[in-house]
Amino acid sequence: MTSVLFYLFSAILLFAAFRVISAKSAVHAAIFLILAFVTTSAIWLLLEAEFLAITLVLVYVGAVMVLFLFVVMMLDMNMEPLREGFTRYLPAGILVAATIVFEMGIVLGGRYFSSENFPAPVPHGSDYSNTKELGEQLYTTHLFSFEVAAAILLIAIVAAIGLTFRRRVESKKQDIPHQHRVDRNDRVRMLDIREESVS
Amino acid sequence: MFGLPEDLITVIWTLIKIVVIVAPLMLGVAYLTYAERKIIGYMQVRIGPNRVGPKGWLQPIADALKLMFKEIILPTGANKMLFVVAPVLSIAPALAAWAVIPFDDGLVLSNLDAGLLYILALTSVGVYGVIIAGWASNSKYAFLGALRSAAQVVSYEIAMGFALVGVLMAAGSLNLGDIVRAQEGGFLNWYWLPLFPLFIVYFLSGVAETNRAPFDVAEGESEIVAGFHVEYSGMTFAIFFLAEYANMILIAALASVLFLGGWLSPFAGVPLLGDMTAWVPGLFWLLMKMSIFLFFFLWFRATFPRYRYDQIMRLGWKAFLPVTIFWLFVEGIAIYAEIGPWFDGVLGA
Q: ipTM score here?
């Protein structure tokens, strides 16, 4: 059962990954990338990595790809000029691809990735919590590296904002505290419209 | 059983359970629309639907039939494939999230250990239906609605996630059943009291997440007609509608489970009254709590004018997010100080 599911998900994953680079429209490519993430998450579930699988969907599918799709949809790309030099650059492309395949083959075919070193995961009992286990590892054994990673991410965020944020002088900005201070008397004038006063 | 292989029996049994959850849910959606029209009607000194069936009881059925027989229009220049897929992407997460909602002690389709994360992941996927619908329609109004909705949902998800972190800190578990069990004791033991700011932030973010009034700029009929689903008609529109209401009921169910003790009786521990109501099934209490939240959804819609778009963003990022982060610190201190009856024994677990 598990291996059937594994091959099914792997087939979908490979198809989706292929469509990411072969799809004509950028939006389609982004959507196939989402499909690839979701199937990867399903494969991770088969490996009993519950927490990582759900976090992959939460972070990549739920947040990163939404913003990605957002940007891609707004671009009105003309793909024709991008396709022009296809045959001219094909030999170089094949060379680079072959090198990468060769390198990955060496790494993954090596002793450290052999199946003896990675036996099939032993199914845990129902009281085993993948999330708790990961949390304990991250916050005790690997606390220092975890904190360093967090600090680096924070610096990256601040740097990204610092590099792109430009305060435009001429932009008309609403002063929200000023808007909040508005009084009822600034907006509404009560009139006495009883019959006598109208006539 | 009947000589069938074990796996097949599991699959069939799960399918039966899914039908038992989804069928009442769909009925609930139908009558929520009826309740909405009636309640808002009375709030605005009108009667609301009262023609179809006794007191208008058959109105939602008539609406459903009408939508089913309407033509589905494909706009010119629309991306056909994505145009049809979008409603499916919208309703699938709204239904799938119900798998981990505990209706009573042990009465849950999947007793998932990372239930809260699963919910968070699925609700964040729901936004694709809206974005893809807006883009595939090849219409400016639809696209504007989709962009607004996407920005809003992504922003409020963060405040919502932080509110959930508060609950999981207090309960020490991501399993929704365990979260309810951690609130056992009585009305004052539920998390709404110690986590009050998170409770408010969670529910309001839920309202924003489902694109309901006063945060419904994604539909904003006075500005962009109907937003992301302008071009949808008939059943394709009905599916977006179903998804929106299923999500409302889901938010109500989650708020009840996380902050109001799920299936627990409000009278537990009260002398006399507690014993008198001990026979009431937990499902009843859960449904009552959900109804309160659903009523709030409708009440908001009848009461508040629509938020301005920049104010929505401001509220999410500059009000809700700091409040949740501040309260997480307060909660951390409370857990360290073992303040009872909510936070004693969290450290040891």
A: 0.79
In B97-233, which residue ranges form alpha helices assigned H by DSSP? Answer: 115-125, 127-136, 140-171, 176-182, 196-209, 221-224
Which chain A residues are closer than 8 Å to B120 by Cβ?
58, 62
Q: At what angle do helices A65-74 and A26-46 cross, to 10 degrees?
A: 170
Residues B210-237 as b or e (16 or more Cβ within 10 Å = b)? bbbbbbbbbbbeeebbbbbbbbbbebbb
Contact with chain B for residue A43, Cβ under 8 A? no
Query: Is A102 part of the contact surface with chain B (CB cutoff 8 Å)?
Result: no
Q: Across the interface, do B121 and A54 touch by the CB < 8 Å criterion?
A: yes
Q: Are B154 and A31 inside 8 Å of each other by CB?
A: no
Name the residue in chain B with its Cα closest to that of A30: B132
**pLDDT tens series, chain A, 199 aa:** 778 888 999 999 999 999 988 887 888 888 899 999 999 999 988 887 888 888 888 888 888 888 888 888 887 666 667 667 777 888 898 999 999 999 998 888 877 777 777 776 677 776 677 777 888 888 888 899 999 999 999 999 999 999 988 777 777 777 878 888 888 888 888 887 776 655 5
Residue matched to tokens 């539920």: B190
Quote the tokens at residue B58.
């058959």
Interface test with A, best of B7, B11, B128 (most A CBs within 10 A): B128
CB contact under 8 A, A31 and B125: no
- Enumerate the H helices of A47-168 as residue ranges: 50-56, 65-74, 80-83, 86-109, 130-136, 143-164
Beta strand residue intervals within chain B, DSSP E: none
Q: At what angle do helices B127-136 and B234-259 cross, to 10 degrees?
A: 160
Pairwise CB contact (< 8 Å): A62 & B147: no
Model confidence, pTM: 0.84
CB contact under 8 A, A54 and B150: no
Distance from the Cα of A90 to chain B's closest Cα (Å) equals: 31
